Amino acid sequence: MDPMSLQNYTIPPGVHPISSDLLDLRSDSEVDHDLLHPKLVSDEKNIWFFWHSGFTHMHPYTQRNVRAWHRRFSKQGWAVRVLDRIPSSPLNVANFLDISDPSTFPRAFVDGRIGGDYAPQHTSDLVRFPLLIKYGGVYADVGLMQIGDLDRLWNKTVGDPSSRFDILTYNAGTVEERSMTNYFMCSGRNNPLFERCHKLFLELWAADGGKTSTEGMHTSPLLKGIPLLGQGGSLTFEENGKKFSPEEVSKMLSDYITQAQAITMVMGLIDEEDNWNGPKYVAEHIYAMDYMEGSQLINAMTAWDGPKAFELMSLSLPQADKQQSAGQRQAREVVEGCLQKSFGFKLAHGLILRVMGDTLGSLWRKHDGSDNVPGTYAHWLRYGTMYWAPDEVPPPLDFQVIEPYKRGPLLKAE
Predict the structure, then answer these.
(1) Is 171 left (phi over 0), alpha (psi -120 to 50) or beta?
(2) Source organism's superkingdom (predicted)?
(3) Which pLDDT tens digit goes with each residue over 300-313?
(4) Which of 57, 100, 229, 336 might form a disulfide with 12, Cβ 3.0–4.6 angstroms?
């Protein structure tokens, strides 16, 4: 029996239990067998992940994330796959995409020469667009915990031919900003925005005879006119005696998530030669949820203090005859808030650790199993993501047609 089913957690208002016949409640080993032996692609209901060394070498807390996606959605027709780059693996990217095709991957990917401090992350960035373009479905980071009802939202947006929405994602920033998060992207096959994003992304990698990392990509004339990530902010950090200014941090973030910068440019591009109007397409066809409440609520409620979030999630719930402490009260508010309001929660890793220090994700990584201790708030959250769903799905931001960032051909500098 699944050990989580033995828990007796309180279901928050505005949240409902998922019918047991919609859940795959077999043992972890049986779920893992399905994840390691995927069925052939038959339609667009695909959930794609990537981990360079494969599912069995993922950190346990991210394995739990992926299993939860499978348990929640496989019985509704979704196929969950964690692609890798292991030569003998049936989940090797090469079994799904032509890795020798220069219109699909840059030379550095083909040759295994992607370098820099975040090579695995940038390798995964390069498989996202091709998978969605060829097969459709969802691309998600392994660090994304799913909370909301993906199948319900798919069926009213991308999966509904009569819907005006072709893309489902999160938007970082206000409704006036165009900053799609690349940790959750959903579309049907051959999406016109993602096709253009991919062309631009490959062109950025092809610069200077072929890049082996994204370092310096923020300076590309093909990205001229879009704001740097975090521009105008106050984030600084010190490392090995060197202090990085807010401007330097902004440039580092923009290089780290160049893929998102490419998306922003296409969203704000009018290319009459290609019959492309990005601002109009975004306003008419993208269902973008607010990323803060939709996927970053724990961080918002703890002021992006990773150790504080870890401390709260590690607390045990009060016994029936005990008064809850201030920490337990805050932890309850966090868990209930996520389960009621959010569509997911993105555990942060990568460059953010250099800038802001430890996150909840990095601390779950350091303290193996701490996210899965029965009776804690972390376990209550995990339980809720598997057995329950919010009554409502987050509404889309009301995108309007904005002034373009650029007028002219996608692959030509102004």
Answers:
(1) beta
(2) Eukaryota
(3) 999 999 999 999 99
(4) 336
pTM: predicted TM-score of the whole model, two decimal places: 0.96
pLDDT in tens, 389-400: 999 999 999 999
- Which tens digit of pLDDT belongs to each residue from 178-231? 999 999 999 999 999 999 999 999 999 999 999 999 999 999 999 999 999 888
Residues 277 and 337 grouped into a single domain:
no
The pLDDT value given to residue 1: 37
The dihedral of CA 389, 391, 393, 395: what is its sign?
negative
In a domain, 407, yes or no: no
Beta bridge mates, 164: none
| Domain shared by 90 and 175, yes or no | yes
Residue 315 to residue 209: CA distance in whole angstroms: 53
Element containing residue 244 per DSSP (H, E): strand 242-244
Q: Give the three-class secondary structure for 323.
A: coil
Please state, in angstroms and rounded to a whole number, the distance separating the CA atoms of residues 18 and 12.
14
Largest CA distance in the chain: 70
Total structural domains within the chain: 2
Query: Can you tell me the distance from the alpha carbon of 125 to that of 136, in angstroms, rounded to the nearest whole number?
Result: 16
In whole angstroms, give the CA distance from residue 330 to residue 334: 6
Backbone angles phi and psi of 145, in degrees to 5 = -85, 125
Same domain for 257 and 347, yes or no, is no
Q: List the one residue out of 142, 172, 44, 186 whose CA is nearest residue 364.
A: 142
341 and 268 in a single domain? The answer is no
CB 283 within 8 A of CB 175: no
Answer yes or no: is 11 within a domain.
no
What is the average per-residue pLDDT within 52-63? 97
- Residue 246 pLDDT class (50, 70, 90 cuts): confident
> What distance in Å separates the CA atoms of residue 83 and residue 229, rounded to the nearest whole number?
28
Phi-psi map region of 216: left, alpha, beta (phi>0 left; psi -120 to 50 alpha): left
SS3 for 14?
coil
Query: Looking at the domain assignment, is residue 413 inside a domain?
Result: no
pLDDT per position as a tens digit, 132-170: 999 999 999 999 999 999 999 999 999 999 999 999 999
Q: Is residue 129 part of a domain?
A: yes
**Alpha helices of 74-230 — where are they, by DSSP H?**
107-111, 119-135, 150-156, 192-206
The two structure tokens encoding residue 66 = 């992926």
Segments forming the whole domain that contains residue 133 = 20-295+392-401
Q: What is the Cα–Cα distance from 328 to 313, expressed in whole angstroms?
A: 9
Are 277 and 327 contained in the same domain?
Answer: no
